[in-house]
Amino acid sequence: MNSFCAERAVSPLDGSELWVVLDAELVPHREASDFLRALHGASRSPHTIRVYAGRVASFLGWCASQGVEWSSISLASLARFKHFTEATPGRGGRLRSGATVNATLTAVCEFLRFCARTGVIEQAVAGQLSEPRWLRFTPPGFDAGESGQFQMVRARVLKARAEAAFPEAFTPERAGRVVACCQRPRERFMVTLLLDGGLRIGEALGLRRSDLHLLPDSRCVGCAVLGAHVHVRHRANPNGALAKSRFPRTVPASDGVLSSYADYQFERAEILGEDDCDMVFVNLYHEPLGAPMTYRAAKRLFERLARDCGFAVRPHMLRHTAATGWVRAGTDLDVVRALLGHASLASTTVYLHARDEDKRRAVEAVAAGRRYR
Known about the structure:
Layout: E1 5-10, E2 17-22, H1 30-41, H2 46-66, H3 75-87, H4 98-117, H5 123-127, E3 130-134, E4 152-156, H6 172-180, H7 185-197, H8 201-205, E5 212-213, E6 229-232, E7 249-252, H9 255-272, H10 295-309, H11 315-328, H12 333-340, H13 345-348, H14 356-367
Antiparallel strand pairs: 1-2, 3-4, 5-6, 6-7
Helix pairs in contact: 1-2, 2-4, 6-7, 7-9, 7-11
């Protein structure tokens, strides 16, 4: 049994939420909790902080159960923790994938490096986590220096074998089913915005009314972007929502987004009247009415959609569906990258995956032209 756990803490002063790691006596683990506060101060997303909290708690619990001092852990002991993570089933009873194991190791390594930077542990403990390696292939535009000396990078020593997973995207039929299962205008607007615009859920929940420029010409409000569009900005929000990318971007608004937003605005005015909250997504169906919609409320919405649809429905699947649709329509990858807000084109190329039906169609098309004796 894990002697450490991650818990959400609410400040009695301003109601802000933070994650902490508690020991078996429910005493906060000082270094782990400081690490999580540092992530919060660095504007990491609430989802990232929550996940990191659980993974650091798991690491500390393993160290306690094995009699390993976490602050001076050796590479050999960390390798044992990696094996434990690989061999121990998760909450659903299934073994963790290589990608999940690597994500756990990333969280632990970030925690140990933070402790080394703040002088809590020896620098040598964090230094053993990575080693210099030469880049076999350099990305376009990579500056290797005059003698190529900058081709050497720091790579993590411990790493699990992970298969490249294709992004989960809906077929057109399933995407239509998700929209059809939306019971109210606010739900339909959120789903349409994610499905047509490819926004992340944190970006959608963090939208302000002033971010929506839905007129054909927005020069009257000082915006030179042509056509109806949505501004996505990285900033603090009262509901904790956060845009992952620090770089602002604009996303064109489809006719579906425009019409579903008009329906949502009518519903909002009918329930709240003239409310003064600038957040786009607010509570309409439960108290406190008019308050900014939270991640938890969005999670409940998508869980209900999954039950009604009869298959998994998660916000990021709508984003994947948008990106996959753009790529399959022949949209230039640079354009898709700009629409998604990816910092690197490498993040966008995952949408170039071939579906099983694509591969079968290619084989059958060529085979049909051959003549066998």
